[in-house]
Amino acid sequence: MAEAPTDTPWMIEADGLCKYYGDFAAAEAISLNVPVGQVCAFLGPNGAGKSTTMKMLTGYLSPNAGTAKIAGHDVHRDRINAAQRLGYLPENGPLYSEMTPHAFLNYVGQARMLSGDRLQARLEWVREQCSLGDVWGKAIGKLSRGYRQRVGMAQALLHDPDVLILDEPTSGLDPNQVHGVRELITTLGETKTVLLSTHILQEVHAVCSRVVMINEGRLVFDGPTDELGQQSDAMEQKFRELTVAA
C-alpha cells in the first residue's frame, strides 16, 4: 500500500471544489479537511450536491475548479495512489448481477492487486463483517436491495483502505442490519477516516463526531455534532433552519 505524504495531517482534503452544469452550480467552493480517526457526516437535502461532491472527492467526477486529495494524494494527478488509500461506496454502485458476491469480490480484490492468502483473508473478513455468508454463492441480481448494499460495502472495505467515503451506507437495510453497520463504522472510525452521507439524523448521533452540511451546492455548516443539538428532534430543527429554501 502506498504511503501517505508525511507533511499532511488530513486524510480527506477539498479546496474550492466547484461543479457546474451550464448555469447550474451543483457544488460551489466546497472546502473541508477531515483528519485520521474521525467519522464525519455529510448532510443536506436531496439535490443539495452531496453525491456530486463525493464523486469529486473520489476522483469519479472532474471538478470545474478546485482540488481534492486523499491521504495527501491528488485524486486526479496521483489517482492510483489515492485509490489505494480509498474505499468508496457510491449511491448506486455498479454490481455485476450475474456474479455471486464471492466471485465479484474476488474479482475486485484481484483488480486491487490482492492475491493468495491476503486476498482470502480479506474475503473472509468482509463476508463476516458485512453478513454475506447466507448469500455468498447466490447471484447478485437475485439479492434484495439490502444485500446488494452490503456487497457494495464489502467492496469498499475489501482492500483495508485508510479512508472511507460512504454514500447512504445503510440505505435499504433492516433495523438489525443498520445496527450492525453502525457498529462497524464506529469501530472503523477508531483508526480510519470516514465521510458518510445519510438522511437518518439518528445515525449521525450514533456514529459521527462532526457534521458538514451542504445546501444548494454550498457549505452551510461545519462543526461538532453536538452543536446541532443533543437529540434528533433538535438536530432536525437545525437542519431545517439551515437548508430551507430562501
From TrEMBL:
PROSITE patterns in UniProt: ABC_TRANSPORTER_2 (PS50893)
- GO terms for molecular function, please? ATP binding; ATP hydrolysis activity
* EC number of the protein: 3.6.3.-
**Name of the protein this chain belongs to:** Putative ABC transporter ATP-binding protein YxlF
- Write out the transmembrane intervals: none
Q: Which gene encodes it?
A: yxlF_3
Query: Where does the ABC transporter domain lie?
Result: 12-241
Q: Which keywords does this Swiss-Prot/TrEMBL entry list? A: ATP-binding, Hydrolase, Nucleotide-binding, Transport
**Database matches in PANTHER family:** ABC TRANSPORTER, ATP-BINDING PROTEIN
Q: Which family does it belong to?
A: Belongs to the ABC transporter superfamily.
